[in-house]
Amino acid sequence: MSGFLRPHVHVHDPNLINLRKAGRAVLVGPTVFVVFYLVLGNPTAAAFAFFSAFVALVFADFGGPPKPRALAY
Question: What is the C-alpha separation between 30 and 38, in angstroms, rounded?
Fold first, then answer.
């Protein structure tokens, strides 16, 4: 039982990469949803666009310099 409880778990996140990915997802995801839902009036496409943006921003890992990486996103 004591193996499951870790009082001092340390997460190593160099350059706060995961925090920056989460921040982008928080900003872009709802914006995409609102554009598709309110502006285009399509709730199905809004849900699909939200999850697509989330996957592209959080789960995908485009490496390289910042400018080509931003274009890849």
Answer: 12
Q: How far apart are CA 20 and CA 15, in angstroms?
A: 9
pLDDT reading at 49 higher than 90: yes
Name residues whose C-beta falls within 8 Å of residue 32's C-beta, 6 or more positions apart in sequence: 46, 49, 50, 53
pLDDT tens for residues 55-70? 988 888 777 787 887 7
Q: How far is CA 43 from the centre of its chain?
A: 20
CA distance 44 to 37: 8
Say which residues have a Cβ less than 8 Å from residue 51's Cβ, sequence separation at least 6: none
Look up the pTM and report it.
Answer: 0.68
What sign for the dihedral angle of Cα 66, 71, 72, 73?
positive
Q: 60: Cβ–Cβ under 8 A, 6 or more apart, which residues?
A: 73
